[in-house]
Structure formats: C-alpha cells, structure tokens
Amino acid sequence: MANIDYELARKELELKFNDGDHRIIFWYDETKSFYEDVKNDKINNVKTIIFDKNEFAIKHLLEVEDRTSNFLIYFPNGRPQDKDNWLLDILIYSYEYYADEVALTMRKLGLRNPYLRKVVDRHAKFFKNQNRIEDLKKLVNINDSISESDFIHGMIAVLVKSKYIQIKEILIELIFDAVNTQQGEYISPKFQELKNFGFEEFLWNQIYTYTNYSGDPYIESLVKKYMMTSFSKTAKIENFPSFYKQFLIDASNQASNDAVLLIDNIKSDPRYLSLQEIFCESLKIQELISTRGIDDLGNSDVFELFDKFIVKTIFQNLISGSLDYDFFQNIILNNRINSFWFEKHKNEYEAILEIINFNKSLDIQFYDNEASEEYIKLYTEKLYQVDLHYRRVITYLYRIEENDETIKIIKDKINRSYETHLDTLGSYFSKSLEKKIKWEFIGEKLLTEFYKDIQINMPKKMFVIISDAFRYEVASELYERVKKDPILKGTNSLDHFISPIPSITKVGMASLLPNKNIKYGTDVLVDGQSTLGIKSRSKILFDRNETYSGIKYDEVFNMTKQEIRDYMRDKSLVYIFHDRIDNAGEHKESEVFEASNKAIEELLSLIRKLYNTLQISNFIVTADHGFLYRDLKVDNSLKYNELSKIKPVELSRRYAIVNDHATVPYTLRFSLDYLGEDNPIVITPYSYDYFKSPGGIQYVHGGSSLQEIVVPYLKISELRSGSLKETIGPVGVRIKSTIRSIKQRSFFIDFEQTEKVADKKSERKLITYFVDDKNQDVSGRYTFIAKSDSDDLNQRIIRVRFTLNNIEFNRDRNYMLILKDDNQSENEYIEKEVFKIDILGFKAIF
User: Fold this and answer.
1) In 10 A of CB 747, how many CB atoms?
2) Which domain holds residue 806?
3) Strands 548-552, 573-578: parallel, antiparallel or unpaired by DSSP?
4) Residues 484/789, Cβ–Cβ less than 8 Å
5) 412 and 317 share a domain?
6) Dihedral sign for Cα atoms in the order 254, 260, 265, 266
C-alpha cells in the first residue's frame, strides 16, 4: 500500500500533467523514499521511466521516439550538477518536481512563502506527527501571511500544551511543568522537549524580552529569582542573608516589577500550590523567617508558609497568655485578609479573631447579691457575647483540618476559661434565684405572655418562626445578619422573654400558644387541649381564629411560590416550627454549634423567600427555650448523687419533677402554679451542675441558667421607604488617591471605605485593575476586602499595590482604573477613573 506522502505526490503529479503545460516531469529522489511506490504504480496517461544510468536512451526516447506522450522521469538519486547533467537541455524546458520532506510539508500546510520554508526546514521534526499539525491548526491560521514569530510560537504552544501562543502563556506552562515532590526537585520534561525540537534559543530570547530576566537560561533559576524578588518587594525585611541575595533582582531594575506581576498572575493557578511548596523548601524559606517577627512578612503571600507561620506564632502566643490582642488583630485585618492564602486558612484566622473576642468578652465584673433581673439585663446586653464567641471559637477550631497538638491546647485553654466563667456566673445567678418564691421577674415578660404580646397592634398578616433551642446568642447573630441583609429592607429589634421551667420543648411550645391555663404532664395541655405535635398546636391556633395555622419549616420552605400564595390566601397568622438545633442536640450533640450556624442560614433563607413571594413585612423569630453546651465532657464533680430517694415523677440532666415537698440540697425549687392551677414542683440543679440521669452530656436544657431561660424575641418589619435603599447593603468604597498620573511600573493606590461595617452596612469584597482604551487588562487584578468597623476614617484606608504589564504605554492615551464588586460582571463597576501613564525610559516590547 502506498504511503500517505506518495499519495499526495501522485495527486500533485496528476494535476501537473492534466494542466496541459507539462508533458515531461523530472523527479529527483536522493533518499529513494518513493522508489518502490513509483516502481509499482501507474499514473493514467503517463509513461513512467526509472533512470538506470542510460541518459542517451532517455534522451532518444523523449526527443525522437515519442514526442507526444506524457513522461515521468524518476531518478532514484540526487540531481547532478548542471555540468554533469546530460539531460539538462530537456530539464530546462520541462518541469522539475520536488518531493523532499520540506516540500511535502509545505504542500500539506498549503504554504508557498519561502521565508516560512526556512522555518519548516529548521523544525522539520515537528511536522512528522500529524496530531501535532492538527493541534497547530487549532492555535493559528496557517497561511502565507502568518508571521514567522506566530508560526514558531504556535509550534512551541503545541509542544508545551498551551491553549494560547503568547509567550506569557507558554512561560506559565513551562513554570508549572512536572514537579518531582518526592525528591524535592524541579524537572521540566516540556522544556527538554523544546530543546529536542530546536526551539531553545528562540524561546529564551522571547522570555528575556518579555520578562526582562537576565539570569541563567533555566526555568528553575527564573522562578527562584522571581519568587524571592516578589517576596522582598512585598515584605518588610530590609537585610537578607547572603544566600538569598543571589536570588534578588535589584529594585531599580525593571525586571523586579515583572517578577511581582508574574507571581501575582500565576498564583490563581491550582498548580501553584505544589510549585510554591517545592521552591519554599529549595529556597530555605523556613530558615529565613523562623527568627523574624510576623509583622516583617508584611502582606507578602508568595509562599503559603507565611500564613502558616503567622497562624502558628499567634496561637503559641495566645497559649502563653499574650495580651497583644490589637497587634494580632492588625496583622490579620491589615496584612493577611487580602492574602492569597486567606481563604484556605480562614478557619485559623477566624478562630484567632474569635479567641480574642472571647477573651475580651470575659472581662466583665460580677457583683454578689444582685437581683436576678440585673443578671438577666447584664446577660442580654453583654454576657451573651461570651456564649456567642465561645460558639464561634469552637466552631472554627473544629473546622481546622490540621487539628494538631497546638489546636488541642488552644481548645483546652478556651474550654477551661469558659468553665470558669460558667462556674462564676452560675453561682451568682443561682444565689439570686434562691431568693425567689415564684418563677417571676420584675420588668420581665414570661414566655406564657407571648401570644398576648403579639396581639397588640397585630398586622393583617404575620409569620411567627419558632426555632427549637434557638438561644439568645444565636438569635443575636441572626439579628446582625438581618440588619445587613440587602433584601430585608426594614426595621428590626431584638428583645427577649423568660422561658418557663423546666426549660424544655413541651412547656415552651405550649407557652407560645394562645393560653389561659397550662397543665404540666407527659402531654402538656393548653386549656385542656393536647400540644403534642404540630397538628395539635395548629388546632389550638385554628380554634382561636380560623385564619391561624401552624406548619413545619421543611413543608413551607419546599413549597413553590404559587403554593405559598395559595396556602396564605386565607391565613393571617402562621406559626412555623423549625427544629435544626434541638434535633442535632438529641441525636448528635457534638454538632450543636454547626447546627446553630445552619439554623441561622435556614431562617434567613426562609424569611427572604416568604418576603419575596408574598411581600409580607412582619416576622417574629423566637424559641421555646435555650440550651447549655460545653465542648468538654462534664466530670462527676458536677453531678448530683442518686435522686431515687425523692421519687421524681420525671428526671432529666437539668431538672426533676416532683409532686410532694421533697427537697435536694444545693438545688432550686419552684412551683409550676404560675402556669396554672394544680401543677407539680420543679427542681433544678444549682449553677450548671447536672443530675445523674440518662441523656446528653455536652448539650442540655431544662434548667434555670441564663443560657437556657433567656428566649430571643426578634421582630422584623419591612418598611417600603425609598430612602432606605441608601442605608442598606455593602459599605461604600471609593478611590482616595488624587493623583491621576503614573510614572512607575509598580505603585500604590489608596482606597477609602466611606462607611463602617455596622447595622445594615456589610463588608465588601472588591477587585481592582487597569485597562486600556480597548478594555484590555494592562495590570494584574487585585482583590481586597473592605470590612472595617472603625469610626476613624483613617483606619478605613486600604492600600493596594499595582504592577503594570510589560508593554509599551502611550502618554497620549487614556487608561482606566476599574473598581468593582467581586460578583459583578465584566461590564459592571463601582468606579472607572481615567489615568495617564507616562513611564520615562520605558523600553517597548514587541
């Protein structure tokens, strides 16, 4: 079977014979590549003569014997010099066919340009593979007008498997080529491939021009210099040891700016993680920073080790009892929050910030002999923050993947501090409760008054969301989220009720319903009716008013918009029952804090959905009781001895129900007559102690602690005032720098956060970069977060470092600085300011 190259040659020969201008074609084949094909083939209407060193016979045949037929004269040898060529006179008036490798390749590519023939000849090896040719055609339009540079760039891009032919993209592929992590070596098979195909010299000329790099022609050397130079320009280290100086490009050299820009551009590539790990080790970065202060690293994020080092250092300082809270906060909020690695180590950073907040929240003075009402007021104003930050700390610490010994020590330290706090608070509050004869509090509303309270000025339609065990501190976080929510444009307030005791679901749920008399038992009755389950509660609501109803959270949340509208057509008051937290506590108590976070998200989603669907503007979020959670297991010293002697009707970790006058030392005892007539007695452990009983160890409720009895009362009312639009949403950010002329390739621009994060103003993630008048990027893209809650405007200045691309800038053209939200499209932006770029002594690169 003829080879593919001969088939192509045969077709070309047929065309030449058929055009009528060529009767005799000479074909010299020095390599004899086509000898067998010619010998065994016959072209229609063509006589094939294979040269056998008898020139005279051929000459006589062509000029005497047959002067009309078409002849292919095939020579299985090279063309002789003219002085030795006995058939030269015939060759001159005939056609000479070329079928060397370069010619065939040119024909395959449809090329005739002699300058491109030189490129094909020089890199003939590349074209021996049809797949490479097909890949090349996908990258460039191969024709006689293509430039030699684009042609070569295309071939190189194919070999390095780049999707683009620009030297920037080719260099990135070479940088991210195979990394041998086991041996700690940087190896580039793609670069070796380029050398084998003869592209090395051309490639390095292009790299030198693009990057201004002037070091050894090795990708490894370039990466080392660029990483170290980028580090030096973004950190605060002034004097580097001699070992590192060999990798530093002088700051006055243009290449130093190129280094920063290149590293900025490749960090977003997923392969950068492995790359920086290898070079972090080979450059001995650990040794360099081990004796440095964490502020020396500035905002440099070339290596992930910097963030690991900062996190570990701060953790160790906190373990040692350091009180440098403001310093640690500034390091995170000013230097690291815009670090490339921040999101990866967000749990660690958030844990640190919450540890600081937790420790600060503990700084509250307790006074003995205060009334219970004073402790309730203190809790709802300040003390709840201890529980809030404790929950957040524990949540973030458990989310940290590398849960090493340091994290265990930190966790233990936090838990010990929390236990001390509970012990102190529990003792004071229990002493205050000892003085009470009845379960009532001056100036405080009991949860049994909830229905009466919402009846005052009740709107036409309203939702009451009851989230089981949604304690006050969790509600406070939801409250802050609602205030900042751009959809819930309205007013809101957070107040509280005091739950009945025992602070358990069946009593709390009954108390929230319309009631005159509540009877405690296995099934708590309201005015003689069962309250067990949602159907029973919904019936009590319906009996009070036919437009009242109750429904499960999942049921309403999974409704379509039309189903919600149909459901609400004849409803004016709907109780929605939500059970994320208590369900976790009953089945897997260690997940209670994560369930609390989930509950906040679910309630926000539900309120948004109902508001968007119905435009109903009134919501109340409350709970049946709170809860107490300790990350530490409770030891036996906090447990009471066997209570079987008093024969409780009902016994749990945090309460006991009795029908007689039995007493237990160091407990609190209250009659349940405040619920209604003929109710039993409840006994609760002193402080945060436990009764020995089956049930949870970490998650409990039913007792009389502040965390269990203070129930949130969050009211959300939407106001349709147009003026509110300006007061809700993310904080404002604008360009502060007044200079609009740029003279250097690397520079800083200040941005001003015009409002502090507070109330309905939320933090904002932004992107900023420069474009030319054709909307093409001419700088790196830089992200930063505006999240300051400071009243001081000077504390809300954010400085961003820019590095311009290695291109020629025209002082007569306009360039724009773009400032936009991270989630905005390419055509949307907050600000678009015109700048002039006039860089003296800049060498244009083409």
Assistant:
1) 16
2) 730-837
3) parallel
4) no
5) yes
6) positive
Do 720 and 740 share a domain, yes or no? Answer: no
CB 622 within 8 A of CB 466: yes
All residues at 6 or more sequence positions from 647 whose CB lies less than 8 Å from its CB, including other chains:
658, 662
Q: What is the pTM of this model?
A: 0.80
Q: What is the mean pLDDT of residues 672-681?
A: 89
Report the distance separating Cα 472 and Cα 221, nearest Å. Answer: 58
φ and ψ of 732, to 5 deg: -80, 145
Total domains in the chain come to 5
Task: Report d(CA 299, CA 230) in Å as an integer.
Answer: 11
What residues form DSSP beta bridges with 350? none
User: Over the stretch 405-440, which tens digit does the pLDDT of each residue have?
Assistant: 999 999 999 999 999 999 999 999 999 999 898 999
Residue 271 falls within a domain, yes or no? yes
Statement: residue 843 has pLDDT above 60:
no
Are 597 and 457 members of one domain? yes
CB 609 within 8 A of CB 587: no
* DSSP 8-state code for residue 725: G
Domain boundary pick from 44, 79, 99? 99
* Residue 152 covered by a domain: no
Coil, helix or strand at residue 747: strand
* Residue 401 confidence (pLDDT): 81
**608 and 506 assigned to the same domain:** yes
SS (H, E, C) 783-809: EEEECCCCCCHHHHEEEEEEEECCCCC
Instruction: Calculate the CA 120 to chain-centre distance.
Output: 46
> Two tokens at 26?
């000479």
Whether 608 maps to a domain, the answer reads: yes
For residues 231 and 364, state if they share a domain: no
In tens, the pLDDT along 469-519 reads: 999 999 999 999 998 887 787 788 999 999 999 999 999 999 999 999 999
Which of 99, 129, 149 is a domain's end point? 99
On the question of pLDDT at 818 being above 90, the answer is yes
